[in-house]
Amino acid sequence: xxxxxxxxxxxxxxSGIGEAVARSAYxxxxxxxxxxxxxxxxxxxxxxxxxxxxxYPCDVGEPSAIQALAEAVHAxxxxxxxxxxxxxxxxxxxxxxxxxxxxxxxxxxxxxxALLTTRAFVPGMLERRAGWIVTVxxxxxxxxxxxxxxxxxxxxxxxxxxxxxxxxxxxxxxxATEIVLGTVSSxxxxxxxxxxxxxxxxxxxxxxVTPEQVADAICKAVERRRGTVIMPWQMKFxxxxxxxxxxxxxxxxxxxxxxxxxxxxAASNPxxxxx
Length: 275
Prior knowledge:
Helix content is 50%, strand content 15%. It is of the alpha/beta class. The chain has a single domain, classed as NAD(P)-binding Rossmann-like Domain (Rossmann fold, 3-Layer(aba) Sandwich), CATH 3.40.50.720. Helix 3 packs parallel to helix 4. It is globular, with a radius of gyration of 19 Å.
């Protein structure tokens, strides 16, 4: 599916991967619909990109806001050809250290946000028998590590959503791509202090990719109708070993990850908690 002349809706579009996808799709001739909570950043980005960029401030963690978004997009005369479910949130925290409300929020965004946003826009795609749905996912959806229970389980739910869509939409003219990433040189670690320290040492052997590299891969995947993209290439080894040697894979991630004894000691030290 060529992006020239298509309408691409991107959630989490105000920064990082979402912003980069918007820029890449716009450069390929697409009309881009920018969705995120931050109205100011969205407006600045849409003004910078030009007349084919439109800002839609929306909290996709709220079902009623997603419905209002769909109504606004349709009222403006846009038919969404490509949906990029990129909005994400969540810290890497052990299960007992995660507040129940935070666990619910991690389930809302990204998983429920992607599920309900897809539900809002897929009927038009099915009616036209053309469209594409992109799910931006983390490598933790292939290989889990300690101290990230809420984050990891939400990403596994995203993986299930992508697989279910591929099965449900087969033969409909609507396709789906899951892009699976290692670490990305975005603001995630800066916005979630302490998370980087919980990345298993063995996982740090996988180099980071830039938002621009991810955006280019997403656009190419849509144009080439690719079902799954895993990047960088080292991440493919992690995914393969998780599938074919799951016990070894899980043991290595546990062995080199954040151990519970050290995590509990850090939690009891208020100075360390603030760092």
